[in-house]
Automatic annotation (TrEMBL):
Pfam family membership, one: EVE
Domain EVE stretches: 2-151
Name of the protein in question: EVE domain-containing protein
Domain of life: Bacteria
Gene3D superfamilies, alphabetized: ph1033 like domains
InterPro entries, alphabetized: 5hmC_binding, EVE_domain, PUA-like_sf, THYN1-like_EVE
Amino acid sequence: MAYWLFKSEPSVFSFADLMAAPDRRTGWDGVRNHQARNFLRDQIQVGDGILFYHSNADPPAIVGVARVTRAGHPDPTAFNPDDPHFDPKSDPARPTWYQVEIEGIVAIAPPLELPRLRKETRLEGMELLRKGSRLSVQPVSPEHFEVIMNLAGLDRHRLGLTG
């Protein structure tokens, strides 16, 4: 089992949107960065844990926990000319862009705001806290995931995030 942080702008797709989706599930589509795509395509597996992060928020924060319910597969939005994530160079026979399916588990209340996370010495080295880190899908070490769970007052075992 691995752990990840997925960033989303709440005005585009929020954690509340995920929790309101049928079965609390959605495809994590529209990722158009090659490094993030490689994680989606090659590394993220069913059962992996996800920290859901609201970027471009005031303040940015980790707002929920989710899990992967379907591993990487071609992102259909890349082939749909009516979709804002359409990529005319993407070919269904040799897809460029991938998505995973995720399921919302629980909201983190209150959210773990970025300024608080920056003060937490146990999170030193976490990708999210690196200067200039903009990657929308990023790995989280098991140790950092556990610290986040503790700060949120959650138990990953009770959430079914064990492995």
